[in-house]
Specification:
It is built from 15 helices and nine strands. The chain has 367 residues and is of the alpha/beta class. Bound molecules: (3S,4R)-3-hydroxy-2-oxopiperidin-4-yl beta-D-xylopyranoside (XIL).
Length: 367
Amino acid sequence: MMQDPAFPNREITSRRAFLGAVLALGSCDATRFPSPDLEVQTGSASLRDTAAVPVGCCVSTARLRDTAYRDLLARQFSQITPEWEMKVGYIARDDGSFRFDAPDALVAFAAEHRMRVHGTTLTWYKHTPPAFQRLDGDRPAFRAAFVRYVSAVAGRYRGKISGWDVVNEPVDDDGALRTSTWTRNLGAEDHMVEAFQLAHEADPDAVLFINDYDMESKPAKRAALMRLVERLIAKGAPIGGIGTQTHVPIDEAPGDIGAAIRDLASFGLPIHVSELDVSFRGARLDLRMREQKLALQADLARETADALMALPERQRYALTMWGLRDQDSWLRSPPFDQFGVDHPVLFDDAGAPKPMYDAIKLGLGRS
Ligand code: XIL
């Protein structure tokens, strides 16, 4: 079992440990997190100091070159997810070799700052780099490259990573399984089962996730994902957790996020709120005051934190923000927003905490 770098007195839940834990549910040790110290009580403590679960943020090596960014990240968060540099589009070079410079640097940064690393993603319909595209149609060769890739990447970070998104975004908006170069060459569900099995062999202690978005706004899509999880488990996929990205607008109906988290948690597996942001974007002209939008944002963030905290302790994998400061968010880049009007995450452009920060801190706080 791995020691959890973000919480030295805590061990990372492997699938085996998880199954044992299911049998022992109800016997969680409430003393594992010390009671708040003076700094916590006076409000000057950071999010990572006060949160009862790992709090994550997506990062890139480019942003880590900014000292203000690095300091804020290390002070407030106890987990990172590489935003881009652990995806196949980055790691697989055109000639079929792999580049691990950036992912290695992120793993080293995390170790230096006692943070966990969550890897994303071993498979994704969106990325088929030239090294794989070239093999399209040659099923044996495509499969050999796939096996080599998943084993090499999961194996390289064995023992250094708390969990992996093994399958990302498998269900489309109508609830059908997506098709891609991967599914055409490897089989729609077979490639998912195989990816889970390969990742488990390469890193037996990593919690292996299936991860998707719009779980709160599209109940039919959520139901389709849950049926997929059932089928994959029946076929022998060692699924260890479910990730709900939670990219939501400020107008998400209250209750949707909580309902999605509760529903997904019904498998008894750990839940990762894996990419939280709450966007100001709306379809219509929006004349509401900034303060009003910030308050709506904080309410939805609080609902998310409360829903995660309402789960049994063993099912709370982490809550991850998709961006550190508003200026770092993917929603600030084309095609979403070129004018700096969106403010989706915990810290404003200057790095000051927003109402959403307090909401998350209170929601995840150890009592
Ligand atoms: C996005 C990153 O934020 C971008 O920087 C990158 O160019 C593309 O990917 N769902 C996911 C994430 O699973 O991996 C995506 O991240 C955002 C949507």
